[in-house]
Amino acid sequence: MTEGKCTFGSRMPIDIHMLNEIISREVKHFRNYKIYRPNFGSIPVTGKFYAAHDQHKSESKEQEEKVDHYHKNVAQTRAKGPRSKYSAPATENQVYGWYFKPLVPMDRNDRRFYNPKKESSHTKVEIIILMNNPKKRA
Fold first, then answer.
1. What is the pLDDT of residue 126?
2. Which residues contact 73 (CB under 8 A, 6 or more apart)?
3. What is the rounded CA–CA span in Å between residue 92 and residue 30?
4. In a domain, 24, yes or no
5. 92, part of any domain
6. CA-based nearest residue to 24, from 34, 16, 33
7. In a domain, 22, yes or no
8. CA-to-CA distance for 67 and 53, rounded, in angstroms?
9. CA distance 55 to 40
10. Residue-by-residue pLDDT tens, the chain, 138 positions
11. Domains: count for the chain
């Protein structure tokens, strides 16, 4: 043992063939895209001054029409809700409020489904407080 050196663990020698194989397998799944396709569903926090699609240059009538068409598509897509995108709720949170009609039609005369509480101790106290409020007394 040598004094003053850490002997915890040891490094394996680097095998260049193994390293090349790992890099080739990782690079195989990367793709470089040449054309920008905007995601109309996402909402950008801010515009990027350096992005080519955010810079409005008045070059020609065709370019202005493309920009107007892009803005129109974005506005239409954002105006649509999840009901126009999906036929059924896609997430569990969308289930609440998706079906706005009750499964069983409610008859207010049938006490099995409709039994409102007319008075409680809380509402009585609230009414007394509201009636005795000096600010509300004209």
1. 84
2. 40
3. 33
4. no
5. yes
6. 16
7. no
8. 9
9. 17
10. 556 666 666 766 778 888 889 888 888 877 777 777 777 777 777 777 777 666 666 678 888 888 889 889 888 888 888 888 888 888 888 888 888 787 777 788 887 777 777 778 888 888 888 888 877 665
11. 1
What is the DSSP track for the chain? --TT---S--PPPP-HHHHHHHHHHHHTT----SS----TTS--SS--TT-GGG------HHHHHHHHHHHHHHHHHHHS-HHHH-SS-SSHHHHTTT--S-SS---TT-TTT-------HHHHHHHHHHHT-GGG--
| Within-domain flag for 42 | no
Contact call for residues 82 and 94 (beta carbons, < 8 A): yes
The pair of structure tokens assigned to 76 is 């239409």
pTM tops 0.70, yes or no: no
Distance CA 126, CA 103 (A): 35
Length of the chain measured in residues: 138
Q: Which two tokens stand for residue 99?
A: 């079906």
Identify the domain containing residue 110 by its residue range.
64-133
